[in-house]
Amino acid sequence: MTPRFRATAVVLDIEGTTSATRHVTDVLYPYSRRRFARLLTERRDEPEVRAAVEQVRELIGEPEADADRVERALGAWLDEDRKVTPLKTLQGVIWAEGFARGDLTAHFYPDVVPVLRRWHERGARLYVYSSGSVSAQRSWFGHTPQGDLRPLVSGFFDTRTAGPKTSSSSYRAITAATGVPPAATLFLSDRASELDAAREAGWLTGALIRPEEPHSASGRTVHPVARSFTDIDLDMELAEGTA
Q1: Number of H helices, E strands in the chain
Q2: Among 40-44, 70-74, 214-218, 230-234, where is mean pLDDT lowest?
Q3: Measured in Å, how far apart are the chain's first and last C-alpha atoms?
Q4: Distance between CA 127 and CA 177 in Å, rounded?
Q5: For tag attachment on the chain, is the N or C end more exposed, with fewer CB atoms within 10 Å?
Q6: Helix, coil or strand: residue 59
Q7: CA dihedral 107, 109, 113, 116 (to 10 degrees)
Q8: CB within 8 A of 160, min separation 6: which ones?
Q9: How far apart are CA 223 and CA 204, in angstroms?
Q10: Sign of torsion over alpha carbons 223, 228, 233, 234
Q11: Contact present, 136 and 19 (Cβ < 8 Å)
Q12: Spatial contact of 12 and 165, defined as CB atoms under 8 Å apart
């Protein structure tokens, strides 16, 4: 059954939802790992890098940790696929440079971009909320085989600007920032814990279940299920009438 949502805004997860997890883990993660050492030495005085390094030191409880120790901590978090804010910040710095140089190109499932363009043309407001930094999100949407998709997106949010993705307060923070009523905001993700938090904040929720994705086999979900973006019926007129 095709899920139908009365929404004027759609908030998108990236990894596992719009894009393949394997592209992130097999391409982007190794790319950042190879460049942490150079980043921590050659760009250590940049405000964003310096602030992230201080966060790493605080999290590992070693205020005097040198660049080598910080790099080892980043590598350990990467091995564990931890969604740690300073890790994501530093990855975003590295990836932005890689996308700009042409070393990296984003991945989107074939069903995603045509639907996003159609929703945008119909007047839907599209947002992104990902564990990856806002900088990484902008780079991702700006460098795709389908061109620069950033004009489709009204705003980007990460764990630094909104909060943890499994906390309902994060979704309330996004509501405050966008001005879109919770009942007219649809969140699409492949992770039940994120969808649960969004629903607790009063949002509409849709679970993207793709067979090739690791979180798609996590069991039953109470959220409406779509196998692709083409399965989703977005009814904006009804949403405007009930907002």
Answers
A1: 11, 8
A2: 214-218
A3: 25
A4: 11
A5: N
A6: helix
A7: -120
A8: 85, 89, 133, 134
A9: 9
A10: positive
A11: no
A12: no
**134: amino acid identity, one letter:** V
Cα distance between residue 21 and residue 141, in whole Å: 15
How far apart (Å, rounded) are the C-alpha atoms in residues 227 and 14?
15
What are the tokens at 73? 């901590």
Burial 153-170 (b: 16+ CB within 10 A, else e): bbbbbbbeebbebebbeb
Token reading at 60: 């590992």
Task: Find residue 127's DSSP bridge partners.
Answer: 11, 155
Residue 26 has what DSSP assignment? Answer: I
Each residue of 60-114: pLDDT tens digit? 999 999 999 999 999 999 999 898 999 999 999 999 999 999 999 999 999 999 9
DSSP state, residue 216: G
Using CB atoms within 10 A of its CB, is residue 151 exposed (0-12), middle (13-18) or buried (19+)? exposed
Contact 186, 5 (CB under 8 A): yes
**Tokens at residue 149, please?**
């998709």
Asked whether the beta carbons of 187 and 206 are under 8 A apart, the reply is yes
How far, CA to CA in Å, does 1 sit from each of 20, 84, 207, 226, 243?
24, 37, 13, 9, 25
The Cβ of residue 83 has, within 10 Å, a number of other Cβ atoms equal to: 16
Single pTM value for the model: 0.88
